[in-house]
Write a structure and sequence with these properties.
Layout: H1 10-25, E1 29-33, H2 39-44, E2 52-57, H3 60-66, H4 74-78, E3 86-91, E4 106-110, H5 118-132, E5 136-142, H6 167-181, E6 183-190, E7 204-211, H7 217-223, E8 231-237, H8 244-277, H9 280-284, H10 291-297, E9 315-317, E10 320-324, H11 325-329, H12 332-338, H13 341-348, E11 360-364
Parallel strand pairs: 1-2, 1-4, 2-3, 4-5
Antiparallel strand pairs: 3-8, 5-7, 6-7, 9-10, 10-11
The structure holds S-adenosylmethionine and magnesium ion.
The site of S-adenosylmethionine has 21 residues, from helix 1, helix 2 and strand 2.
């Protein structure tokens, strides 16, 4: 039979499998064990349900190679999202208990277990299912029955593999662990066998374990007292609108943008109106030089929005267009950020120029408007 190759490559199919599972179950806290160069973590950081993402690997060097890809991007500071996200990388062994991984919804171990020494593999079920006890565990490992179909594989697929299991071996290990620690397990995989070799099964075999009991807060609290053995080598706290500092920054930016947009609209409409009414001579030297005088000279009552009588419509006062806060608060994006008018006032006070009565944002009418 022809050697089998995969499109997309098998490692990408494994990552996609995990990502789809995350999108289906919406876990908030996800950890990846044996995270290596953090490729799966990078893919998972875009899953909107995740607020806490952690990676563990025995090798600090391999994690450090690409851990910078897990840092927030400049655009994430410019336009923070509502979601909070903290990504942490730990150096340590999955054969050791560390309280940092308690309380997780999902823990993934993609192509990890076959790299564990016999002693580590023996300790691993107690650590992951007994101690960390996440709601869901995903474990993938090579299916040795598929090896004869792969090009250039003699004994194992990788020099560092300590073993490779056939379907029966993996299933009996998984079923024993599930039974011992109160989980149920289902088997699936990625990398379909070619037609005629269906009995071989998937190239990568996967066990999905689901905890079948509820862990009490007291038990978690007690486990939290265990000594920390992992070393934190990276931590990124993403900017989030749940943090008042970023929320205020977003509100001030939005309010200034909207107030300037309203002023610009008024200027354009006043200009158009005046231009239509101007004599031919006046139109020749258009626009007028002094825009403050011009704004005032305009028939303000002719523009509904310029009517000073209404507290919800913009008006001209001294050298500024005043945009009432109520007007700004009626803009969906502002409302979405502030929730109440009181919050809007609190967020912009001291950051944005307000009218004497504190009810309007003032946007100066500058000479440059004359060219607008
Ligand atoms: C084949 S790589 C896994 C790659 C990664 N999960 C992926 O799918 O792209 C196995 C990783 O397990 C790590 N590893 C081996 N023994 C470990 C242990 N006892 N504890 C934690 N990580 C371990 C290795 O350093 C290596 O990065
Ligand atoms: Mg491997």
């Amino acid at each position: 039979m022809e050697p089998v190759t995969f499109t997309p490559p098998l490692y990408k199919q494994r990552y996609q499998f995990v990502k789809s599972l995350v999108e289906k179950h919406n876990p908030k806290k996800v950890a990846d064990l044996g995270c290596s160069e953090c490729s799966l973590l990078w893919k998972l950081k875009f899953c909107s349900s995740i607020e806490v993402l952690a990676g563990v690997d025995i090798s600090e060097d391999v994690m450090k190679e690409k851990m910078h890809t897990l840092s927030p991007l400049p655009c994430e500071y410019l336009q923070p999202s509502w979601r909070s996200l903290v990504i942490t990388l730990y150096q340590g062994s999955v054969a050791e208990k560390d309280p940092n991984l308690l309380g997780f919804d999902m823990i993934t171990c993609i192509e990890l277990i076959e790299h564990l020494e016999a002693k580590e593999l023996a300790a691993f079920p107690e650590v992951i299912f007994g101690f960390w006890a996440p709601i869901m565990v995903v474990i993938s490992t090579p299916n040795s029955e598929f090896n004869s179909l792969l090009p250039g594989v003699s004994l194992f697929r990788h020099l560092d593999h300590k073993f490779e299991w056939n379907k029966k071996e993996f299933e009996s290990w998984a079923l024993e662990a599930a039974d011992c620690y109160g989980y149920t397990v289902e088997f699936t995989g990625v990398g379909k066998p070619p037609p005629g070799a269906e009995s071989v099964g998937y190239c990568t075999q996967i066990g999905i374990f689901v905890r079948n009991y509820v862990e009490t807060a007291e038990i978690v609290k007690h486990k939290m007292t265990t000594n920390h053995v992992y070393k934190t080598i990276f931590k990124a706290v993403y900017p989030s609108l749940q943090d008042e500092k970023y929320l205020q920054y977003a509100v001030v930016n939005e309010v200034l943008y909207q107030a300037h947009r309203i002023k610009r609209r008024l200027w354009d409409s006043a200009k158009k109106n005046e231009h239509n009414q101007a004599t031919e001579e006046e139109q020749r030297c258009w626009p007028p030089e002094n825009c403050v005088t011009f704004f005032k000279k305009c028939d303000l009552r002719g523009h509904k929005e310029l009517a000073q009588s209404s507290r919800t419509e913009p008006f001209v006062q001294d050298n500024a267009v005043c945009v009432p806060l109520e007007k700004l608060f009626s803009i969906p994006r502002v409302k979405q950020l502030c929730d109440t008018l009181g919050t809007l006032i609190k967020m912009i006070t001291g950051k944005v120029a307000l009218s004497v009565d504190g009810c309007s944002v003032m946007v100066r009418i500058d000479d440059e408007d004359g060219n607008g």
